[in-house]
Write a structure and sequence with these properties.
The protein is α/β, with parallel strands linked by helices. 45% of the residues lie in helices and 14% in strands. It has one domain: Rossmann fold. The protein has 9 helices and 7 strands. It has a 7-stranded parallel beta sheet with strand order 3-2-1-4-5-6-7, sandwiched between helices. α2 packs across α9 and α4 packs parallel to α5. The longest helix has 28 residues. The chain is globular and about 50 Å long. The two termini are 28 Å apart. The N terminus is likely disordered. Keywords: Oxidoreductase.
């Protein structure tokens, strides 16, 4: 389900659009997060990647080194719900010189089922990771962004923010809430030359979405809702995030860009 045209588009990478920039990307050792970190580095940024497990960080660093990015990437353990871990990733950014770009990518979905059957524990955990941690990361990034005279904050939402998936009820609610967080934070920070935007991927070929992309009736139903008739690739999300991180988007703030192959995306 990956067309020749999509391959050609994802192969175009400006080489110095982010030269001198420093980025933090959470949950960035696999899938969309790793692709974002890689693309930012390919365009010239220094990037801090993170995962809850050191083994995942080490594996990702090896992959990125093999891609010729050894000198552009550092990694550390970070559970985004822990204040001391969030401090650690920003300390790593300080070692590189500061912070220009924050990409909040971490997300979780501990229970599958109808929304009103969701347990209180799963509700709290999903909101803590998908929404509260995103808010705290943005808040804690501000002093570093201000020191650099501005910067970029990006939240990774989901097509589920617009078109809820019945078995991902609370996940969908948190991803919709990120759209509101983006709007309010963007208004607050616009006078400080800090843009706040959101990216909402559709169904992307990752482990996280494998229940939708594996061959079978669920995949067939999902495909019927995608006008481009294919699932997305992580590089296609990374390209949009990198555009928002660059000066090409410096007059864009408070927006959500949907990367979904044409899936409906209106609240």
């Amino acid at each position: 389900m990956f067309s020749k045209n999509a391959r050609q588009l994802s192969s175009y990478i400006p080489k110095s659009r982010l030269e001198g920039k420093i980025a933090v990307v959470t949950a960035s050792t696999d899938g969309i997060g790793l692709a974002i970190a890689k693309r930012l580095a390919q365009e010239g940024a220094k990037v801090v990647i993170s995962s809850r497990k050191q083994a995942n960080v080490d594996k990702a660093l090896s992959k990125l080194a093999a891609d010729g990015l050894r000198n552009s990437i550092v990694g550390t353990v970070c559970h985004v719900n822990k204040a001391e871990d969030r401090k650690r990733i920003f300390d790593e950014a300080k070692k590189l010189g500061g912070l220009d770009i924050l990409v909040s990518n971490a997300g979780t979905n501990p229970e599958v089922g109808p929304l009103l059957e969701c347990s209180e524990n799963a509700w709290d955990k999903t909101f803590e990771t998908n929404l509260k941690a995103a808010f705290m990361l943005a808040k804690e990034a501000l002093p570093l962004l201000r020191e650099r005279g501005g910067g970029r904050i990006m939240f990774i939402s989901s097509i589920a923010a617009f078109a809820p998936v019945s078995l991902l009820g609370v996940y969908s609610v948190t991803k919709t809430a990120l759209l509101g967080l983006t709007k309010v934070a963007a208004q607050d920070l616009a006078p400080e030359n800090i843009t706040v935007n959101c990216v909402a991927p559709g169904i992307i070929n990752t482990k996280f979405s494998s229940m939708l992309t594996q061959e079978g009736p669920i995949q067939e139903e999902a495909m019927r809702n995608i006008p481009m008739n294919r699932f997305g690739e992580v590089d296609e999300v990374a390209g949009v995030v990198t555009f928002l991180a660059s000066d090409d988007s410096k007059y864009i703030t408070g927006e959500t860009i949907v990367v979904s192959g044409g899936m409906q995306s209106h609240l």
